[in-house]
Design goal:
Layout lengths: L2 H15 L18 E7 L18 H8 L2 E7 L5 H10 L23 H6 L4 E7 L18 E5 L12 E5 L8 E4 L12 H15 L5 E6 L29 H26 L6 E7 L29 H4 E7 L8 E3 L3 E2 L3 H8 L14 H4 L11 E5 L5 E6 L2 E5 L6 E5 L15 H13 L12
Parallel strand pairs: 1-7, 1-8, 2-10, 2-11, 3-4, 3-7
Antiparallel strand pairs: 2-9, 4-5, 5-6, 8-9, 12-13, 13-14, 14-15
Length: 460
């Protein structure tokens, strides 16, 4: 590498870490009618991986504090049991029967699919995305900069995001001459491990918060923790250090996984401290969740930490362990503290919820409903008729939740398995044979809850 090339790469790295100006002295923030919104998305974090959800061995003090200072949901559902479609659902408010991206293939969002960032930016919000996108490559119209984000740094492709020490990332900025440009990371060239991507993302996120002054902001922070680097097989849980678990008598991949989750918890603590330092803590809604259930990759086993909590299954399952995820919501003075809610909420509800918090009307035709009243401690004014998923790895699968009834069809030509989640939360007792009327109701929903798709047909 020439000296001039190295200097240019260093300048690009500095630009990524300082995508917005850094002021030497605090400037008072203006009072606003609508909140800043931060959405933190973990990657393959299970329902049972946090202390506030029953985890005994992995330390998550900052997330536990977030739960104590806000609302913890016990019945939040991800958009899909794998990452890309789950993120598509989260961004668009459309479930996997309607969104264009229904599997983990490199399929971009369509131009007519409006993201939550586009909605909020249209109302004057400054918008930033830092982390893993997975909804459109650089050759599509679905990169973050083209789907509503003013500032962006991270991975475009979900497979590239397996690598915690990438040789380059992607970025854009309202101040850049081009929308999307590669950011070389010289310290990671040739397999070197000089820059741990989550640490870079944390610095960029704090800079984004620090720099937005005149408008409310929406920060989408999709971490890559604790996803495995699948290409490294049994050594795929990449972390600079396994502290504070180095002395534990655990398999090394499990120590690394625990260290990754505690590192993410630390990052959440840094972001919360930044909000307080900037004086915007009381006017910021912070939501924390995960894209799907815990993985079985990188040498880890979900059973070791009981990462799925009390639920059956894990990532790639339409059983509860694959799609029921943690959700923490904090907004001091607005979201009541220390509340545990068993209200049903799904990823496709977050777009209309954020829109209402911003004083906006959500786009027509969404599958989601606003849950803002629930967030604020009020009665649930909106109810889902049912919740729907489809999943396209191997045989196409479908699932539906209606109240406490859960139907799972493992292939389109197969029977519907029926579970009563109230009496059987572990989905161990199939009661389809003794509940034929419930089966008929759920089968009707499975038939009508989707639009046909050439790319995502229901195939055995």
């Amino acid at each position: 590498m020439s000296r001039s090339t190295g200097a240019w790469q260093a300048l690009l790295l500095l630009a990524a870490l300082s995508t917005v100006g850094v002021r030497s002295a605090p400037v008072p923030w203006p009072l606003r009618a609508h909140p800043n919104i931060i959405l933190i998305l973990a990657d393959d974090l299970g329902y049972g991986d946090l202390g506030c959800y029953g985890q005994k061995r992995i330390q998550t003090p900052n997330l536990d504090a977030l739960a104590a200072e806000g609302m913890r949901f016990t019945r939040c559902y991800a958009g899909s049991p794998v990452c890309a479609p789950s993120r598509a659902v989260l961004m668009t408010g459309l479930h996997t029967g309607h969104v264009s991206l229904r599997g983990n293939a490199p399929v971009p969002l369509q131009t007519n699919e409006v993201t939550v960032a586009e909605v909020l930016r249209g109302a004057g919000y400054e918008t930033g995305c830092i982390g893993k996108w997975a909804l459109g490559s650089e050759r599509t119209a679905a990169t973050p900069s083209r789907k509503g984000f003013n500032e962006w740094l991270g991975y475009l492709n979900q497979t590239a995001a397996h690598n915690y020490y990438p040789a380059n990332l992607w970025r854009s900025s309202k101040d850049a001459s081009v929308e999307d440009m590669q950011l070389p990371l010289p310290g990671n060239v040739g397999g070197a491990k000089g820059v741990y991507a989550p640490d870079l993302f944390l610095k960029a996120a704090t800079n984004f918060i620090r720099g937005v002054r005149l408008r409310p902001f929406f920060l989408y922070f999709p971490s890559i923790i604790p996803h495995a680097n699948n290409e490294l097989k049994e050594k795929g849980m990449e972390i600079p250090s396994d502290e504070p678990y180095a002395k534990e008598d655990w398999p090394q991949p499990e120590k690394n996984k625990a260290a990754m989750i505690t590192r993410l918890d630390r990052d959440v603590g840094v972001l919360m401290a930044q909000l307080k330092a900037m004086g915007v803590d009381s006017n910021t809604m912070v939501c924390f969740t995960s894209d799907n259930g815990p993985h079985r990759e990188g040498g880890v086993k979900p059973e070791f930490f009981q990462s799925a909590g009390p639920w059956r299954g894990a990532k790639r399952d339409l059983y509860e362990g694959g799609i029921r995820v943690p959700l923490l919501v904090r907004w001091p003075g607005r979201v009541p503290a220390g509340v545990v809610s068993d209200e049903t909420i799904a990823f496709w509800d977050l777009l209309p919820t954020f829109a209402e918090a911003a004083g906006l009307k959500a786009p027509d035709g969404l599958d989601g409903v606003s849950m803002l009243s629930t967030f604020l401690g009020g009665a649930s004014t909106n109810q889902h008729p049912a919740l729907y998923w489809e999943f396209h790895e191997g045989a196409s699968q479908q699932a539906v939740v209606l109240g406490d009834w859960k139907g799972v069809r493992l292939r389109p030509d197969g029977p519907l398995h029926l579970y009563d989640l109230k009496s059987d939360p572990g989905e161990t007792n199939d009661v389809a044979a003794v509940q034929p009327e419930v089966v008929r109701r759920l089968e009707a929903h499975l038939k009508n809850a989707r639009t046909s798709s050439e790319r995502w047909p229901l195939k055995p």
